Amino acid sequence: MTQDHAEVIALGALGWLAEADLLDTFMSATGAERDAIRAAAESPEFLGAVLDFALMDDTWVRGICDAQNLSYDSLLRARAALPGGDLPHWT
Description:
The chain is mostly helical. The protein has one domain (about 5-80).
């Protein structure tokens, strides 16, 4: 997967989080501020954080993937294509 494609998936995930009323939970977990999210969404590192957050809950993964018509492993593959995503998973 290319980084550009991964960024599109992450932006879709961010939109889904907002529609699912999980944006406040995301902001609380990451320290992101509502007013700064739009600008931060241009950063591949921030988009990686969006996917890190989304990957914490299988229900969220399924919801995001269903909304974007993606296979359920797409978020993990997208995360691997963004900065910091090549780190090993120990669990």
